[in-house]
TrEMBL record:
It comes from the Eukaryota. It holds the Pfam family BTB. CDD domains: BTB_POZ_ZBTB_KLHL-like. It comes from Hermanssonia centrifuga. InterPro entries: BTB/POZ_dom, SKP1/BTB/POZ_sf. Residues 20-85 form the BTB domain. Signal peptide: none annotated. This is BTB domain-containing protein.
Amino acid sequence: MADSPEVLVAATFPFNKANSDVVLRTCDNVDLRVRKAILSEASVVFEDMWTLPQPPAQTGPDDGVPVVSVSENERTLHYLLRFCYPMENPNLKTVEDVFAVMEAARKYMMDHVLIEVKRQFLHYAEREPLRTYAIACNRGLEEEMRIAAKASLLEPLADSHEMEELERITAGAYLRLSAYHRACRKVASSLGYCGRDKTGRRVWAAKKDWRDSLVNIEPWWASYMILASEALKIRPRGTTVLKEEFVHKFLVDVIGPRDSQYEKNKALSEFAEFSAEFAEAVERIISSIQLKIPLKITL
């Protein structure tokens, strides 16, 4: 008995217009009708495809428009093309969509698409860091692994829950993430205020005896730094030292006892400046810690 012919499906708007001059056929047999001129502007790969000599192409069954088969599925290609067309950029629905479109954009050398997709990637990395890290490991994407690893510092690994994606990574990938967390916790929690330099700028440094420098600052600064250090042992990110609990303690212990509104406002302004610089210093020092990735990732 002969095999049944493959069933081809027409794409939805806007890739179903009759005035297209090429069809992109996906791996799941969906035909997306597009304009060569638009893709040429968006991708040097497509531009070369249209201008360089090519083997005889398939043609559509109805109107003879040339057909180019691609390896992406319809969902990924539909998202990718919408970034190229003069229309509102799509919001990628899942982190899997982000990775798929990102890899397609790299394949077709669509730099402008990569910029927007990476912006959406950051959103998912911050919302689902461990899951994002695991998927990046499975795909061998080093830059995305590092971004997701840094985002994961906001929650202790011990508090993570089981997820399907983590089951697919190697023990080595998880151990490297754990070692990265330990290194970041160590340097962030040892970060101390060392006074001001000759220009008046505050100086921060990670050192074992950083608490010795606390004798040079007001007691409430010292109290804040000690509390922040303990918190950074759990969540080594700049946002940790800006938590509401620290602000509340400052308001009660320092602002509350002061009589004049001027003194209160001045103290609050100093605290906001100090804590913001502290947060920036935390971010700088953890950025100096790199997630270790082997030269060749074994999946």
